[in-house]
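Researcher: We plan to redesign the surface later, but first we want a full-length starting point. Tokens attached.
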């Protein structure tokens, strides 16, 4: 018989975020894609976003977010035993971004691996971290969502250039004396895999300085919009039910930041009352894919510290198409 070590309940102990210094307003983007500031604000809610410097890497941004999260957790870096790194823009297949990061952080012995669940990556990783702690496989898990999407967006593509941006967010997940992370409701609609692609064969983008070909992101905007607004919101309702939480018990809704109209439609579909604070970090951060949920959480807690300890529904969704959501107690 195998001796089974059981863990404990889990919670988010802290959150950290990092955004590059450069603020890019719509006015800097519109000329190249024949658009207007008004169109982008109306269709997406985006007013500005952050672009990383040319020499600022995914690892640089991840490191900054992780150091903030670890400091806020009150732990030491060597207390972290597991590192989960969610990104679709770390440019190496192997070795992983997670091991590169844990070596940089001075904790090279931690279990470390990458996950690719696109804009749902953080919520996939958070669900795994919580389950590892509950099972006794891990005690303190660092979950990072980080992207440098500007490396993979064609700046002249009218369908994507105004949406995607750069940044990093991280949380430390650890033991709790009560359940503070609800069950993860996750899944996929893999028949619609073509709706968002990061694919070198679809459209080849040549870096003007080096003439090197890069894969670029492409998407079917309207199909993704409908799927997110109407299908993914049903997963949100299931995540609430799985946690035994009713919409009026929520303090906040922190969905993936892809489009303000999607966020508002989801809130309506799930019947969230006006008392629920809805994260709209997209307005000044754009869509940072795996980084968007932890970045939005960090921004919300900075603006509204009284939300700390309240319940929040998190939902990530993106290329795959994949989704994951859970109710959490905010750190
Ligand atoms: C991308 C998105 C903002 C486009 O908005 P939309 O309303 O679907 O736009 P459409 O492609 O239907 O185009 C509508 C009109 O706007 C125009 N248009 C398209 N892109 C434009 C742009 N960048 N600037 C100005 N006009 C634009 C089109 O030419 C079209 O004009 P017409 O009505 O005269 O033919 C929207 O589909 C969206 O947000 N989808 C979800 C994408 C997403 O969340 N992706 C990430 C998931 S992780």
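Model: Full-length starting sequence:
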């Amino acid at each position: 018989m195998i001796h089974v070590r059981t863990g404990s309940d889990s919670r988010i102990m802290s959150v950290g975020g990092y955004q590059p210094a450069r603020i890019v307003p719509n006015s800097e983007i519109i000329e190249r894609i024949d658009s207007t500031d008004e169109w982008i604000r109306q269709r997406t809610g985006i007013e500005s976003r952050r672009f990383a410097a040319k020499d600022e890497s995914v690892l640089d941004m991840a490191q900054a977010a992780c150091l903030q999260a670890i400091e806020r957790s009150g732990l030491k870096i060597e207390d972290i035993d597991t590192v989960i790194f969610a990104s679709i823009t770390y440019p190496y297949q192997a070795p992983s971004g997670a091991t590169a990061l844990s070596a940089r952080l001075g904790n090279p012995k931690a279990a470390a691996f990458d996950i690719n669940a696109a804009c749902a990556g953080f919520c996939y990783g958070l669900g795994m971290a919580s389950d590892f702690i509950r099972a006794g496989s891990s005690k303190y898990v660092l979950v990072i969502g980080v992207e440098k999407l500007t490396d993979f967006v064609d700046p002249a593509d009218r369908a994507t250039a105004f949406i995607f941006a750069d940044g990093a967010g991280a949380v430390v997940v650890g033991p709790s004396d009560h359940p503070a992370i609800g069950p993860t409701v996750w899944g996929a609609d893999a028949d619609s895999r073509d709706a968002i692609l990061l694919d070198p064969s679809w459209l080849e983008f040549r870096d003007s300085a080096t003439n090197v070909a890069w894969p670029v992101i492409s998407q079917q905007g309207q199909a993704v919009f409908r799927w997110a607004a109407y299908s993914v919101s049903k997963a949100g309702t299931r995540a609430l039910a799985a946690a035994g939480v009713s919409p009026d018990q929520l303090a906040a809704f922190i969905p993936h930041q892809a489009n303000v109209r999607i966020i508002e439609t989801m809130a309506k579909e799930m019947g969230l009352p006006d008392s629920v604070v809805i994260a709209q970090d997209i307005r000044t951060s754009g869509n940072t894919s795996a980084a968007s949920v932890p970045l939005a959480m960090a921004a919300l807690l900075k603006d509204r510290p009284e939300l700390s300890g309240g319940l929040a529904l998190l939902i990530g969704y993106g290329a795959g198409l994949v989704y994951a959501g859970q109710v959490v107690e905010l750190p």
